[in-house]
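Check my protein:
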Amino acid sequence: MEFLLLGSLEARRAGTLLELGGPRRRAVLTMLLLHANEAVSVAQLTDAAWDSPPVSPESNLRTYVAGLRKVLGDRLRTRPGHGYELVVEPGELDLDVFEDQFRAGESALIEGAAEAAADHFGRALALWRGVPTAELNAGPLLRAELTRIQERRLTAVERFAKASLELGRFDDVIDRLRLETALHPLREELWAQLMIALDRSGRRGEALEAYAAARRHVVEQVGVEPGARLRQLQQVVLESRVPSPAALNAHRQLPMDIAEFTGRESELRQLCAPGPQTTVVISAIEGMAGVGKTKLAVRAAHQLVQRYPDVQLWADLHGFDADELPADPSAVLESFLRLLGVSGAQIPESLEERAALYRDRLAGKRALVLLDNAAGEDQVLPLLPGGATCMVLITSRRTLLRLDGVRSLFLDVFTATEALALLSRIAGEDRVQADREAAERIAELCGHLPIAVALAAKRLARRPQWTMRDLLTRLERGGGLGARGVFDLSYQALPENQRRLFRLLGLHPGEDVTAESAAALAGLTAFEAGDLLETLLDEHLLQQHTPGRYSLHDLLRAYAVEQVTAAEPPPARALARRRVLDWYVNTAWQSARRLNPQRKLEIAAPDPAVHPRSFADRDAALLWCDTERANLVAAVRDAAEHDLPEHSWSLAQCLWDFFNLRKHWADWIDTHGIALAAARSTGDRAAEGRMLITLGIALREVRRHDEAIEHTQQALAIFRATGDRSRQEPALNNLGIAYMVQGRVDEALACYEQSAEIARELGNAHTEAVLLNNIGLLHADAGRFDVALARYLRALEIRQEIKDPYSEAILLNNIGEAHRGLLDFAEAASVVDRALVVFREIGDLYGQAESLDNLGLALDGLGDRRGAEKCWLESVALFEELGEPKADEVRGRL
């Protein structure tokens, strides 16, 4: 006999699956197995099977036991006066095997044998197939028992991670811990071990991101800060930084490897064969959609990591996505450069300069770059490293003839042998061998296409009562050939709630989906959507490159679009699209409130079925924006294209602070240009003016000054025509900044003065303080330090009234510069030291670097050369860590 508890409940005799009956009978069997070879009382079985027991549960239990005895024979015995006992031989129950391995692992850890411990805990965890008996209607006692063994499993995960960390096997545990923290976000020890693994493998930035995610979950769900261990780990990671101009921040980006990867042995050998020693190695995997190009590339990349350990970068180029434009090489380079430690402010604007900086950052490093779904050579060429220490893996549906030195590998559909191997891998070798002829015919009906074979195999794996012949009959009855036939079979067999969510995903903007955004799309709770997404993942209808984020294969996305168009009437599709865009707009609004509490944003209320996310702090808001960036940009475009212009411009204005902070110039200009056109299409003058202002700021930041001034002047004209004084104020301020950048001082000063007058008239203290600071800067640049100081001091008075520590620190630093200009070095040092304290309190590294430089200049003026040197050394370190060129200027002072 074989009894399986660590997943869905199963029992087998000589490999044959036994029919165990309904939920209550299975609950009784589960309780007996949990106490195998022990007497289990009627009272215990009652508490295991019912929340509210019937009046006389004994007769029901006798019926259930009788049914089980027909299946299990004399294994199930009655113990008069004590209840019932199930006899289980050693090795028959997977839970017993798990416990044996667990105890062996514990002993090995105590003895300091980390290798043996990792082996035992790894074997223990390999026995788990899912959530134990999730299909049961369990009573309180059984729920408690099942919770106990799941806790035991999590302890095994932690022990496995501990042993693997001692052995330095960081990659072994990182993927596992990412998944476990996504499933159990309140278990702080899992987060702690993930932080340790990431930090020790050189991924400090990701370790800090893990802390931010852990803190967000604990604060939002429990309402307290993380425990001392997590907080101490965060401090250790922060203090262990070693500033370096070329420090890599988040440079290991490969997607998760695929556990069910099968076949392709000769192709893998070809891809992993050493290439030329004098030039970059370029391998291109070419073939039709669904043939497994990405899976092969990811498997090869993971096998090549030891040869290219320094950097691994990955990008989906969307070359053949019907709902998404091919990725702009310039945008991909921006993403890569940020991952390689280049700050947004230091990323050049032109494609050529970005490509040159990218090649420079990878020079001499053993780097692997995976470019998935390439549209053609022109898209790929700027993304190629220049050195012989690098390798590039490319997947495409086209032949890339114009890439010099490329090694092309054409990937065909599976051979019959490989298709059967995949069927066996997923559905079980015994089932394939039981009817090999039917299995071969199934593979033929799937066209030997890997995605179709995997879906068919998963159908069998999820239905242990089916034979190969059952699946074959259904495929032949459907008349489908290739992927479409299997898609139909998988889709039609789903319950309606799963079918509905799957087809609605065809309307989702962007690259991937989360439980929260899917919930908005379908009008569900995030918990309900998460369960459905996991089910669709189990059915192979979704992919998951990152825990908690799901995506559709190109073929399945097209199929989902087809199904939603056929099954949902236009009003239903419009409602779903509006709901998900409501979620993005309102969640972005919540993030904007954290990123800039002073900015006032007006947006429409969401649909009642939509539950926007909120954020505990600024870090959590920024992390969400970073993670969702591609979807947010796609959502702005999607709203404009589907007659939801207000969503388009509302979302664009909510993203302004994020784009400004992270210096995502291209996204900023793209989204605000789309939103501006949307506002103009409806004749909404107020929205048009707002978009003109923010678009003008972006154009100014990329030094397109004439265009920036033109856009801002247009905005000012609109607000004057409509009599909107509150909007004239920021328009004049931004016009003044644009003039100041061009050296048009008098025009800038006139704009600032007009804007300040309106701010005083409206009682807008925050804006008045901003303008006084800008006016002070103009006077300081002209050498009028006494006039500048007066403006700064008045602005500081206002700032202290409205409690804005960031702006207050900037003003204190400017006041210190004015005192230096007046040769009052002692007062300058005192004031700048106050600025430095505030910048440190709020964690602003750039502000700290600026203040330390300023403080060094003041101390140097006082003759304190040693104090100045100390300040400048710390300032250089911070500027270098941020990738700021001002580090060279401060180094010159040293």
Remarks:
- The CA atoms of residues 756 and 884 lie 32 Å apart.
- The mean pLDDT is 86.
- The first strand starts at residue 2 and ends at 4.
- The first helix runs from residue 23 to 34.
